[in-house]
Design brief:
about 130 residues; alpha+beta; Beta Polymerase, domain 2; five-stranded mixed β-sheet
Length: about 130
């Protein structure tokens, strides 16, 4: 299985959990350009998550509680949350980023697009997010 397929499987599984909890989200990283160009290789994936009434990290942790395929690692000193998809070997790590700090503040039809059933940032928002990083 190519790296792009593995990352897309992990993104799809995380997206399903986030959708079940009504958490607005979108993916980006080299996986986005790999999907657009039909490239089998990529090495990074990020998930931007809206906060709502609570911090986005808390919302993600609550969404994956009880999932046998996901674990989280929070690094408070660097304000990072990593979700690890353990169904595949080696495991896939997805970095969670708060909306507004990385990418658009609101994730809606104007800032996201569906690729292979998975929400990604639009091309213009992807470029904007890359320039901010």
């Amino acid at each position: 299985m190519s790296e792009t397929r593995r990352l897309l499987e992990a993104a799809n599984a995380l997206s399903q959990l986030l959708r079940q909890h009504s958490i607005a989200h979108a993916f980006h990283g080299s996986v986005f350009t790999a999907v657009l160009s039909d490239n089998p290789r990529c090495d990074e994936i990020f998930c931007i998550v809206e906060g709502g009434s609570t911090h986005p990290f808390r919302r993600v942790r609550q969404a994956i509680v009880g999932s046998e395929h996901f674990t989280t690692t929070h690094s408070p000193w660097s304000n990072r949350l990593h979700v690890t998809y353990r169904r595949l070997i080696p495991a896939i790590e997805i970095e969670i980023l708060p909306a507004g700090e990385h990418g658009p503040r609101r994730l809606d039809s104007a800032t996201t697009t569906q690729l292979q059933g998975i929400p990604f940032l639009t091309q213009s928002e992807f470029v904007r997010a890359k320039l901010k990083a």
